[in-house]
# Entry
Amino acid sequence: MSVLQAALLDDWQKALKRSVDGKSPSSENPKENGIISQLCSKPLGTEDKNEDCLTEKEASHFLNFLYPLHVFGYNWLEENAVSAGKLVEYIDKTLRSYRSQSGHGHGLAIEKVILVTHSMGGLVARYAMNPPDDAEFEGCQDKVLGVVHGVIPDLGSPAAYRRMKVGGKQEGLAGIVMGKSAEELMPVLVRAPAALQLLPAPNYISNAYGIGWLSVEKGNADSSDLVLPQKGDPFGEIYLNKTLWWRLYESDIIDKEESVGKIGLNTMTSWTTL
# Structure
């Protein structure tokens, strides 16, 4: 992405300079044009066997737009509402830098941003644009031209339950670094508001089982599979269950004190209400 961004900026800047000099944005000499223009009519070697080459018309169309890329990083353990407030501040700061003559945009009238999110980042973006009335910041919806969400867990993700229950070893190197077992990962996630906010909400719908998303093989008395939650209450049926093995809170792993469990309960309950 950073390479593509640099290439697009290279074309835009060279075209802008030629226009300022009173010349056509594109030169007849390909070497005087930007990187993207030089790739026209050339196969790029993608996985698509029927790959279409970039046309000069498409390259010229790019010159009408400036899409500089800015990456907003946030603490994935922190409350998503807090991260949303920081995102609003970041958007304001970025827009100010482009409106300034001395900033990135050379005084261009850039008024809005396009947000591209992945996973939990989608929750942060949604909260940033439409926070509740009692939020400590104003939403940035009027400063966002559009949003592209990638795998947003808008109703939660069963993977969050699995990671806390058995660890992340099955997810490769990243999962091992995060915590390969429940003993390593659960103590971290139970104290992380954002991680708890990823757990499936009561209105989560599974493509396979409807309101149920946790399948226990031969869990019923007749040896049929048990699917939970059955009543649409993942808190009572799964997360806070204190007797059955699929419960989420394991006091022998986290802490013998009930106060730690109350931290997770309060966080999950407040987020569900919100």
